[in-house]
Design brief:
The structure is a single chain. By secondary structure, the protein is mainly beta. The protein has a domain of about 100 residues: Peptide methionine sulfoxide reductase (Metal Binding Protein, Guanine Nucleotide Exchange Factor, Chain A, Beta Complex), CATH 2.170.150. Helix content is about 5%, strand content about 40%. Strands 5-6-10-9-8-7 form a six-stranded antiparallel beta sheet, with no helix packed on it. It has a three-stranded antiparallel beta sheet with strand order 4-3-11, with no helix packed on it. The longest helix is centred in the first third of the chain and has 6 residues. This is Protein yippee-like. InterPro entries: Yippee, Yippee/Mis18/Cereblon, Yippee_fam. One of its GO terms (molecular function) is metal ion binding.
C-alpha cells in the first residue's frame, strides 16, 4: 500500500490522493498557477525587417543565418569562384548588405582592391565586393560581388 500511495501522490500540493489519511484542512492549499503576463507593446520585439525584399515569384538566395534576401538568381554570373572559406558565387548585384573599407588583396587571380560585405541584418561577413582589378583580364569583376556558398540558402521555386 505504501507503493500505491507513492503512485497516487499529487505532486503540486504533495497530498496523497485517494485513501489519504491526512485531514483536508491539514495541508496548505495548493498555490494557484502564476498569471500569464502580457508584455506591453513597447517591450515586444518588432518583426524582422530588411531594407529590400525580392519578389516571391523569383528564385532567390538568402542569408543562411537570418534569411535576409541577398540576390535574385538572374543576377548570378558564375558559380566557379573561390571564397576565403570555400566555394562562392559571383553576382552582378546584391541587396541587404553593407560594405567595409576597401583593401588590396592578392587573390588567386591576381591583385585586387576588395571590400568585405556583410549581412545588414545579422552582420555576418558573406564575402566581398570587387572595387578594382589591376589586371586587364580581371576588369569584368569590378563592381561585382562574391558571396560564399556556406552563407547562402536557395529560396522560392528551386527544384
Amino acid at each position: 500500500t505504501a507503493a500505491l500511495g507513492t503512485l497516487l501522490r499529487c505532486f503540486p500540493c504533495e497530498r496523497l490522493c485517494g485513501g489519504c489519511a491526512v485531514p483536508p484542512g491539514a495541508l496548505p492549499p495548493a498555490m494557484p498557477p502564476p498569471a500569464r503576463r502580457r508584455l506591453p507593446p513597447a517591450a515586444r520585439l518588432p518583426p524582422r525587417t530588411f531594407r529590400s525584399y525580392l519578389p516571391r515569384s523569383h528564385r532567390t538566395y538568402s542569408c543562411v543565418h537570418c534569411r535576409a534576401h541577398l540576390a535574385r538568381h538572374e543576377e548570378l554570373i558564375s558559380k566557379s569562384f573561390q571564397g576565403s572559406h570555400g566555394r562562392a558565387y559571383l553576382f552582378n548585384s546584391v541587396v541587404n548588405v553593407g560594405c567595409g573599407p576597401a583593401e588590396q588583396r592578392l587573390l588567386l587571380t591576381g591583385l585586387h582592391s576588395v571590400a568585405d560585405i556583410f549581412c545588414q541584418s545579422c552582420k555576418t561577413t558573406l564575402g566581398w565586393k570587387y572595387e578594382q582589378a589591376f589586371e586587364s583580364s580581371q576588369k569584368y569583376k569590378e563592381g561585382k560581388f562574391i558571396i560564399e556558398m556556406s552563407h547562402m540558402v536557395k529560396e522560392n521555386g528551386w527544384d
